[in-house]
Amino acid sequence: MAKITLSKLRHSYMPAPKSPSDYALKEIDLDWSDGGAYALLGPSGCGKSTLLNIISGLLVPSEGQILFDGQDVTALPPDQRNIAQVFQFPVIYDTMTVYDNLAFPLRNRGRDEDTVRDRVMAIAEMLEVTEMLDQKAAGLSPDNKQKISMGRGLVREDVNVVMFDEPLTVIDPHLKWKLRSKLKELHQRVKATMIYVTHDQTEALTFADQVVVMQDGEVVQIGTPVELFDRPAHTFVGHFIGSPGMNILPCELQAGSAHFADQPIALEGPIQGEANGKTEIGIRPEFVSLADTGLAATVTKVSDVGRHTVVECQANGSRINAVIEGAGPAVGSPVHLDFRRDQTRLYVDGWLATTPDTAAEAAQ
């Protein structure tokens, strides 16, 4: 296990990059603690797999350094980094038994058979595959094959980091939650540093202690699942995380106050900086309520999702979602929307530009 440091890391697939748009990865500085559970989250093409391949040694970055426990490993090949990697498609040997698949990484490194047996049995018990040890891997279901692939990554005790590259993509939806739970349990038991790459917010938020959200090769926020939901540092984070995502509304600033549809909107607190640029209001649907007064809107869709109802409205050409309890109003109904002030934020050029009003919070 190791602390992983990425220092001034940038990468371009072009031989002579000249502008920021030429880089698949913009400058990244990160520290991942020894034994932590981390996720790289973002849409396809945002740079997640590129970053994973750089950490594993499959790619050499154009600029910057990768350090394991302070040692520069930037130029080291994968086999000298003590890394285990689990891919989308299970990497196992179908002609071998489950036992021999789990034993292979240890035997390949010359471990004695007593050590091999102890580790294989321990990992098999954690994965709940002990009864399958004598079976040929070819006959396993896809989820069990992926379990064995995970076990091959965990069986070694000398790995610096275990990396998962969208490991649940090919798993049936009704089995994904089982493997997610098992993976979280495994991390808590083996205490290895783990990095999980995914475009699925549910997978990232349920597995990781810290989530790194990426967009267009750039890290836009690092935080706990709660921090990412409660206080998105960027509109992309607000939109990408949550179901439905954060409402993002264009606004104008007049005398330091945000206005939408010619109506002043109370913000969580003071605006930081000059606020020169594209200005938008961000508020999560969970903090929008139907009221007797407030922003005038028209209901365009009502969705009963079981635990609550999502009411989609239109106001001044913008869509606004509200999450409410009970039945929603009829489609086409005029309504008024109230925004909870302490959850209403201003973003400038995508970035959070307000701070909480501590005096107002103390008075609540």
Automatic annotation (TrEMBL):
<dbReference type="InterPro" id="IPR003439">
    <property type="entry name" value="ABC_transporter-like_ATP-bd"/>
</dbReference>
<keyword id="KW-0067">ATP-binding</keyword>
<dbReference type="InterPro" id="IPR008995">
    <property type="entry name" value="Mo/tungstate-bd_C_term_dom"/>
</dbReference>
<keyword id="KW-0472">Membrane</keyword>
<dbReference type="InterPro" id="IPR003593">
    <property type="entry name" value="AAA+_ATPase"/>
</dbReference>
<dbReference type="Pfam" id="PF08402">
    <property type="entry name" value="TOBE_2"/>
</dbReference>
<keyword id="KW-0813">Transport</keyword>
<feature type="domain" description="ABC transporter">
    <location>
        <begin position="4"/>
        <end position="241"/>
    </location>
</feature>
<comment type="similarity">
    <text>Belongs to the ABC transporter superfamily.</text>
</comment>
<dbReference type="InterPro" id="IPR027417">
    <property type="entry name" value="P-loop_NTPase"/>
</dbReference>
<dbReference type="GO" id="GO:0005524">
    <property type="term" value="F:ATP binding"/>
</dbReference>
<protein>
    <submittedName>
        <fullName>ABC transporter ATP-binding protein</fullName>
    </submittedName>
</protein>
<dbReference type="InterPro" id="IPR013611">
    <property type="entry name" value="Transp-assoc_OB_typ2"/>
</dbReference>
<dbReference type="InterPro" id="IPR015853">
    <property type="entry name" value="ABC_transpr_FbpC"/>
</dbReference>
<keyword id="KW-1003">Cell membrane</keyword>
<dbReference type="InterPro" id="IPR012340">
    <property type="entry name" value="NA-bd_OB-fold"/>
</dbReference>
<dbReference type="Pfam" id="PF00005">
    <property type="entry name" value="ABC_tran"/>
</dbReference>
<dbReference type="InterPro" id="IPR047641">
    <property type="entry name" value="ABC_transpr_MalK/UgpC-like"/>
</dbReference>
<keyword id="KW-0547">Nucleotide-binding</keyword>
